[in-house]
Amino acid sequence: MVSKDQSIGGIIFLLCAVIAVLYVVTLFYPAWMVNSGWASKEADVRFWVIAVPVFIAFVAIMGIGAWIGWTMATTPPPKPIEEITTEIEKKTTVEEEAKPAEEPKEEKKPEKKKKTEA
Fold this sequence. Notes:
single chain; 4 helices; 69% helix; elongated
C-alpha cells in the first residue's frame, strides 16, 4: 500500500519530469510552439523560456535574503556570556547558603538471610 506522502512525492516527481522535458524541448526546438500557434517567432520563445526561470530564481533568492534579513532585524541579541555565567554563579551560591549543613546519614544495609541446609 502506498502512503499519502509517497503518492504526493510521485505526483511531484512526474510533474517536475514533464516540465523539465517540455523546457528542454522548447529551449532547443522552439519551432513546435511557433507551429502550434502559441508564439509568433522562435526568438520570442527562446527569450521567454530563459527569462521566466531566471526571473523566478531571482525572486526566490531575493525572497530568501529578505526573510533572513527580517529575521536578523527582529530577533533580539543574545545575552553576553559574562552575564550568563554571573547569573549561574549567583544561583549556586544562593542555593548553597539556603541549604542547612546536613550530616551524612549512614544507610543501613539489609541483612542477608543465611541458607539453611536441609
